[in-house]
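Protein data:
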Amino acid sequence: MGNLQELGIVLLFCMQTALALRCRECTSYLFQECKHKVRTCIAEDDESCMITRLWLLPFNVNEPEDGYSKCQKNCTRDDYNYNDHAVLISCCDTYDFCNDITVPIDEWY
């Protein structure tokens, strides 16, 4: 019976991992390409996928010049201008890798 219980625990762990929200993680994008290694993070309780996009004004909304993405606790959407840059912070939890830099912004609304 002990082996059956261990197998059940392993299966539950695998199911939980399979159902967990996976997000893109990049510390810096440059013209929609990650400058470093793209990683995957697993969103934990109260976390969602987050991406911050930055543009030099004037800009094309779907072609950010810079940005970063990660798993974020208590993520909140925001947009603002900082000096000569426009900044958009977006959060999502609808599907795996929804915070990929290639996802068009109009899909978020």
About this structure: Residues 2-19 form the longest helix (18 residues). Residues 7 and 13 are 10 Å apart (CA to CA).
